[in-house]
Amino acid sequence: MEIKYIKIKDLEIPISIKNYRTSKSIKIFFKGNILTITKPTRLSMKRLLETIKSNEEDIYNKYKKITASEISSIKQWKTGEK
Asked: Which 3 state secondary structure label does DSSP give 45?
């Protein structure tokens, strides 16, 4: 699993992109504080980046909520790692 970074506004958000042959759609979700994206293998990176660009406001807001530690459902270690 290779972790890349994408810059939205003033934040660099870590992302992990996974390709699946049986996938029929793009799924974007947070796993911990890493944005995980699953996509079909036949979908190009250009089309994926367009999809991310169209949803960047929602991604930015959700990432801000996760990093603010105001959500009690996310467990936090004493070191600050989520």
From this structure: helix
